[in-house]
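Hello forum,

I keep getting stuck at the same step: I have a sequence, I want structure tokens, and every attempt I make locally crashes halfway through. Rather than fight my setup again tonight, could one of you with a working pipeline run this one for me? It's a single chain of 313 residues.
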Amino acid sequence: MRMDEPMRVVLENGCVLIAQQVKGAPLISLNGFVKGGTVWEIPEKIGSVNLMAQTLRRGTETKTAQEIDDALERRGANLSFSAGHEGVSFHLSCLPQDYADCASLLVEILLKPTFPEDELDKQKLRTVNALRDALTRPEEVSYRRFLSLAYDSNHPLHYPADGTPESVEGLSRDDILATYKKALHPARTIIAVVGDMDPKGMLDILANGLIEWKSHSPESVDFPTASFPEEMKRDYVNLPDKMQSWIVMGHKGLRRTDERFYAANVMATILGAGWGRLFTQIRDNQGLAYAVGASLQAGLVEGPFIVRMGVNP
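Reply #2:
Ran it on my machine without issues. Output:
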């Protein structure tokens, strides 16, 4: 496959579109990101951005959730939305001959979602059940607790992006509509599409619909700076009848744009990736842990540097 130079345009509303032709690629692949994420949430409404993203494609002003599913299934296309601490992401994959229809559907979902009450209730139930299951697993509970200790309550990473069972159950349709209006904005959106099509044609199809995208939420977002705690913090969570305990330790790390990122990432890789030094020494040589690793989760925010171990209680 041969790749041509990418084409980039910025629409009048600030939305950035990038397209690149890859000769011989069987599918069109589109990825989008809207900066912001959980920075818009208040403590009482955590999980609202995630629930909004999960329910986004469950109905528009002209299509029901079933009609959207049918339209994608007939074309063998895939369209998904997700949300995290830093933003809302979406992905579209389809055949080149179906790109115009699928891209138009994506634009309609972004601009004209309706969040039907029944679909919202279904997604709330799925999310709450998934959260309750996650909170029975030591590896998940320990990581969530670590973030709440490592980051102050005014930082997005202090709270889980998918919320808690209690916070999600308390979210109403009005909450989700308010979250949609704050969390999505064209000026904070970047969309990249790649496939065996003329890049200008791929961009024009998107631009014709997205140029109508208007929003009254802030055009930019600044993530707060994290600070180190004044003293070491420790916490223990008891989960009875578990065969394995998980230990998570670390501290706030770096933003991806920090000039020290590459050196820090090499360090984390040497320590914790695959058969790194931690794995070799702690698991193989001493047999003290079932699993052990380290990672640097740098991004738009100062994500954590962490070491995680699964050990015999």
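Residues 117-134 form the longest helix (18 residues). If your local run keeps crashing, start a new thread with the error log.
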